[in-house]
Specification:
Rossmann fold; 8 strands; three-stranded antiparallel beta sheet; globular; single chain; five-stranded parallel beta sheet; alpha/beta
Length: 270
């Protein structure tokens, strides 16, 4: 179930009651006094990185900035990278408890609290979800649709409707990017240092060189999606020639639209 929470409902105190703060996150050290004092050290056992923390922005003045993607495109992974690079929690319109218990403490905060650095969303059309994003500021993460469709739907419901949603995620959010920008998920995996620098620039923060070294040094993987495939599905290509033709055409359409907006990004057909 998805929620959008305003600053008034529910209160931060009620959020604290609903989501227990008792949590163990592997080797991360969690420190709690009140909800805005939550902080943790993602690399507590590394003497070179142990002093770095992730916490909330305290003055409540941070403007909203959407972190948008089609589902299965690395949004949660990117959030984890942003938190470790910036030292600030990220938020979300979804209030996903499964992410909260993995250490994404900004997940339960109001999107417009001013205390998180970016806020996750997938759906452009749900007005309540996108009500806070009125300042035309967003970072769009694009993943190869062949990989994104499989990651999200896990072979079960891939098809023309989903590739249409993949395309529309980009086309509908392009006008709202404003001072943000676009990154390819595959590029971030292949060229972490340069792409992470770009990511911080899009957010509007300076790069802490030592912190960047720690992020690159320590691999981050929040979770793997549960498999719903059966039998030999894992070894079977879910994309027939007709569907591949449709997907390739939509990749070309998105590629052209990106170029028309000044983005020289190469989308792969594979």
């Amino acid at each position: 179930m998805c929620f959008y929470w305003s600053l008034e409902q529910p209160s931060k105190h009620r959020l604290l009651e609903y989501f227990s703060l008792e949590h163990e996150q592997g080797k991360s050290q969690v420190v709690v006094s009140n909800i805005l004092d939550i902080a943790y050290r993602p690399w507590g056992d590394d003497p070179d990185c142990k002093d770095y923390t992730v916490g909330f922005i305290r003055n409540g003045s941070q403007p909203t900035m959407a972190l948008i993607s089609y589902p299965g495109s690395g949004n949660t992974w990117t959030r984890g990278i942003i938190e470790r690079l910036s030292g600030y929690f990220t938020g979300s319109v979804y209030a996903d408890k499964s992410l909260y218990v993995k250490g994404f403490y900004g997940e339960v905060m109001p999107v417009d609290c001013g205390c998180t650095i970016v806020q996750k969303t997938h759906d452009f059309q749900k007005k309540d979800f996108n009500k806070p994003f009125v300042n035309n500021s967003a970072i769009l993460i694009i993943r190869n649709p062949y990989r994104a469709l499989i990651s999200y739907r896990n072979f079960v419901t891939t098809g023309t409707k989903e590739i249409e949603k993949w395309k529309n995620t980009t086309l509908q959010w392009l006008p709202k990017i404003g001072r943000g920008g676009i990154l390819l998920y595959e590029d971030m995996l292949k060229d972490k240092e340069n792409q992470f620098r770009i990511l911080m620039r899009l957010i509007g923060l300076e790069v802490d060189e030592r912190r960047l070294e720690c992020v690159i040094k320590h691999d981050f993987s929040p979770f793997k999606r549960n498999s719903t495939s059966t039998g030999n599905t894992k070894n079977r290509d879910p994309f027939d020639s007709l569907l591949r033709g449709i997907i390739d055409k939509e990749i070309e359409n998105v590629q052209k639209t990106l170029k028309d907006h000044g983005y020289e990004l190469k989308l792969l057909k594979e």
